[in-house]
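User: Could you go from structure to sequence for me? I need the amino acid at each position, not a summary. Structure tokens:
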């Protein structure tokens, strides 16, 4: 097979040794080209060119942000996407069954390629930007922005950094009373005074160390979107629902200020003030209107067989 390996050399867990071993393994039985990203958006251009050139599979050794960019370049093509864990959390690679060790994951990938273990999946989209596992709006995305402002610490303190950034955002950087928005559903229902909304395409939402943070455990690669909305951002409530997502999810499921909808194909978000948003853990800025939808049969994945 023709493979393109896209590497983000600055990603949290990418090292020269791992890169050499992985390139040798992938190149031993396949026609391999290697490209290194140099700026934001570069992986999208590289993947799009690979899809147009008929490359069989684009392998991404990087974090979730670079993987998302590559996926955006491959949507609508027949070229497959395969993630190797190179970031700090590697949510999507772990979600579909790859090891957290990049070299072990390479072995899984080679087995899957030999078995032609390909699966066509749907993706979510925010306007024209696709996402693999989730998109967040409001408090969630404002927290991600603060994580990115401290990106130099992410390589060593990724998960503690997210928690510290969440508290910093809540206490100092988010207007709980006014930074709210509404969601309009296709049946005409409007849900107002939302401070945090997450559109999920897979489960879990993320990982806290080895613990999966589960918003909707029933969600899988064959499902449409799950939309979860928080109408209360009191600190105690956020802590309770956050802890709940690590365990039974009882509080998350039953709290009267949390509304969850499954099998969602399309909805719109709007607000009178700028709303932070992120896709797959990358903060993309702010806006006042967003169109979110599920796009079926959009992308081919290489799925581990064991």
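Assistant: Here is the amino acid at each position, in order:
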């Amino acid at each position: 097979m023709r493979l393109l390996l896209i590497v983000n050399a600055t990603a949290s867990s990418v090292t020269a040794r791992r890169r050499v071993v992985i390139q040798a393994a992938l190149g031993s039985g396949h026609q391999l080209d290697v490209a290194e990203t140099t700026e934001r958006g570069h992986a999208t251009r590289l993947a799009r060119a690979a899809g147009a050139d008929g490359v069989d599979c684009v392998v991404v050794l990087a974090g979730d942000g670079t993987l998302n960019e590559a996926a955006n370049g491959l949507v609508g093509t027949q070229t497959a996407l395969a993630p190797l864990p190179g970031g700090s959390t590697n949510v999507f690679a772990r979600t579909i069954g790859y090891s957290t060790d990049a070299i072990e994951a390479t072995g899984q990938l080679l087995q899957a390629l030999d078995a032609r273990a390909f699966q066509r999946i749907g993706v979510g989209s925010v306007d024209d930007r696709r996402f693999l596992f989730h998109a967040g709006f409001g408090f969630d995305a404002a927290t991600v922005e603060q994580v990115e402002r401290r990106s130099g610490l992410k390589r060593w303190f990724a998960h503690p950094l997210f928690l510290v950034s969440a508290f910093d955002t809540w206490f100092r950087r988010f207007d709980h009373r006014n930074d709210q928005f509404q969601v309009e559903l296709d049946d005409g229902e409007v849900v107002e005074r939302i401070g945090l909304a997450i559109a999920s395409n897979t489960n879990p939402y993320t990982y806290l160390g080895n613990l999966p943070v589960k918003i909707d455990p029933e969600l899988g690669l064959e499902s449409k979107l799950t939309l979860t909305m928080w109408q209360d951002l009191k600190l105690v409530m956020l802590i309770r629902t956050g802890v709940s997502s690590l365990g039974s999810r009882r509080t998350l499921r039953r709290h009267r200020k949390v509304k969850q909808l499954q099998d969602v194909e399309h909805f719109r978000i709007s607000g009178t003030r700028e709303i932070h948003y992120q896709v797959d853990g990358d903060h993309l800025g702010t806006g006042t209107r967003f169109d979110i939808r599920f796009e079926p049969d959009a992308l081919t994945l290489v799925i581990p067989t064991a």
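One structural detail worth keeping in mind: The two ends are 21 Å apart (CA to CA).
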